[in-house]
Amino acid sequence: MKPTRESTMPTMRSTEDGCRWRVVPEWESILLGSGGLALETWLADGRARMIRQRVGRAIYRVQVGGRAIYVKHQRFAGLVRGLADLARGSAARREWLAAVESLRRGIPTATPVAYGEQSTAGWVRSSWFISEAIDGAEPLDRFMLNRVNSLPPARRWVLRRRILDRLARFIAAVHEAGLRCRDLHAGNILVTPDQIESFDRGGIYLIDLAGARFSGPLTWAASRADLVVLHAEWFDRLTRAERWRFFQVYRKNRSDLRFPPRDVLVDQLDRGARAHSRRIDRRRDRRALRDNRDFLVIKRPGRRLHGAREVSESVLEEFLRRPEAMVLEALDQPVKISQGTLVVRAEWPLAEGTCRSVAIKRCRPLGAVKVLFDRFRRSRALRGWCLGHALQSRRISTAKPLAVCDAPRSPHPADGSWWSRWFAPRESYLAVEWIEEAENLHLWAWRLAKCPWEERLRRASRCAESLGRLLGRMHARCVSHRDLKGSNLLVAEGGGETRTWLIDADSARIHRRLAARRRADDLARLAVSVEAHPWVSRTIRYRFLREYAACFPRGQIDPRRLWRAVARRALRRIALKKRRGKPLF
Q1: What is the pLDDT of residues 448-470, one digit of tens each?
Q2: pTM, full prediction
Q3: Tell me: domain 439-580, CATH 1.10.510.10, correct?
């Protein structure tokens, strides 16, 4: 129920902990005692649980007074933020005012309950914002990934279309009401599944409004800035038809605006979303090396481990203490054995009690030059850890890294000499998830060659299209792979679908701008591997190229020109391999 103006008028109150509160009267006795907010008591008796935590902010869900509320705790986040808050007010105060104004303008959001500020000499050290929970609501991104994508295809596409239509009308209403949200992503949009799946109106809410700005109806430039942020999260998950349908519904509901021509509008949003997405991706690349809700860091004298929190901490401790022994214990399940690399398969328990198959990779630099360079850069396993999670955050299918650690440098026989200090090799260990029922592209293609031609063509076409989307997304995200060959691509079939993965992430490179020459070089390496399977026709290759080009903005990729460039480079590589007597795969 929308609160009335009288019910949202806050009362002022100060508590013994030095916090000044503004609270809706009906909640004052429930939330505040003489000592202030009883959050510690709620956590102790199980009525409160932490939902999210990061540096400077924590969010709790609390069951109190027969209802559910969310408590957002903002801590002092440095001198710069503190000076800014002196001028603009604390984050809790800004979110309170924005929520009240949003409800006044008819924009659905969580009902604000209270906010408090704890100050010292005029500086706000901590602030709390409390709002009522929306019954049955969940973030849009989680709803799309967990519930919508698990539906049968026919039902899935109907529901996706309905969600896009309602979301377009909702965003148009938000912009017409004059609200500009600088953080308009799917995690800040809540949906109630019962209303979305039925034909009821509503069911969409906008939250996290601390950075919101209010004015008259937004101009096209301001509206485009919000749409770019929203579009950046979904441009490679929606088809072009779905994206255009969203814009059509939005335009229909913003009759007050003059829009640019269709081609210009699509180009502006598409290119702006891709640029914004690359900026966000670069910012997230540092998360894998920090201690946060997804990753943890364990330090011991002379050693350090980075791990995923989904893995049991006892296993991570053992992996840090004796990585070589864990590799040798799984030596009866070898995957790859070479001079510099050893890969074995093992079973690791997860934090929730289940087990998962993992691949443990031991890397050892060979040669004095590589050992010397290894002193001034990250180890190969640590590079694979960082790049693997960078690919994951860019939604490029790869084996998820679970843990990484570097072993101390093994002493050289000439102990104490300058050689021992500078050229002692350092072993590094990386554990990644094992992709079940998948095999590399060469093994899959050789097995497929024994099938009848019609079945072979059908299955190879599905694989080519999946592979085209994978590598197209990789290059569109400005990622190259200097060892793109068949043995570093995995294929799995099931349920009438074919999925592909890219492995050996330490050979990937992330660029600010990926040149056409690098894209052609990567595809030429793959084309050389495909030459080991002469039955692969030009039709199958064209299916790959068509899906690859669809991952880029319209007009950026000329399939014919790319085909010729890749063919020229592939022929040179093939001739070089034949002169050196090396196999094509």
Answers
A1: 999 999 999 999 999 999 999 99
A2: 0.82
A3: yes
